# Entry
Amino acid sequence: MKPDKLDSLFREKLNARRLEPSDQAWTRLESQLEAARPAKRRFAWYVAAGIAVLLAVGGIWHRIKTPVATMPSVVNAAPARVEQQTSPLVVKPEVKQQLAGVTKKSPPKKTVVAGISPEQQQIIVAESPRISTDSAATPAVLALQEPSRRVRRPIRVDPSMLLREVDRELNQTYREKVLSRLNTNYQEIKIAITNRNLEN
Amino acid sequence: MLSVCRQYIKDIHHAEDVLITGFMKVFSGLEQFEGKGSFEGWVRRIMVNECISHLRARRQMQYLEDAPYEEGLSDDFEQTSHVEEIQAAIDSLPDGCKAVFNLYAIEGYKHREIAEMLGITEGTSKSQLSHARQLLRQHMANLKVYDHETG
# Structure
């Protein structure tokens, strides 16, 4: 079929025409788009939040795990020594009580006292070296424990406390975030200036 | 694109409504755009489909009685006609007739495609097109006469 003159005229004219939608139409389109968008956006935020939480938990886990793994001997050794140290301390009052009981009983039956007292003395003697060795060992133990405590300090991370801290950071409002950030930046600048002044 | 909608829908506000729903479909279906052909063509197709479904929903698609398929009214009309006059001529057509003319003459669809889109037979599509042309020529001729009389 030959191209119709009427058709081509109408096509040309109509395709050349530009109609501008009214402002109302734009605002309506905008509001409809806004209504359609939040679902997607919210989903993206959930994903982002999930990733952030995973990273945070992973980071904490890593921090807790690594020092424990590197120094298991110190951690395991420390409680054993503490037990050693405490046992004589527990024994001691018992011995004293026994001694007190013996001394109280001693006046009416002197013969028995003579019989018992050497045993008791023996016990005391037997006891005393143990105590003495313990007391001799205590400085060494303390000396050993001293560094172990120092090393252990960074390990003693309370996971629940850290989690709480992370929670607090996550729960911070935008304003709080900005404020804390400003504060840290301010502190950094302050330190940098004081350092410079000291250098000068 | 509003111009496209306006071709099918006489009421500018309805045309805007259709434009908005059409654009919403464009945004929600952006992933479906395969990059075949121009983006504008794709958007235009969506708009045309939206216009047709709008007209269908409002049951405005009455088709004229099958007119004898004849060509041959004079091509003696003003080539310098204003677009407003052309739009007025299209507005004067019944909706079904108008849709067929728009799809065939402006969008360049084949009768088979138009029949499928509108749910009519190919014969109806052809007869509606000739009917539309006839009416449009009459309208333009009347305009010309009117112009000569007043001018």
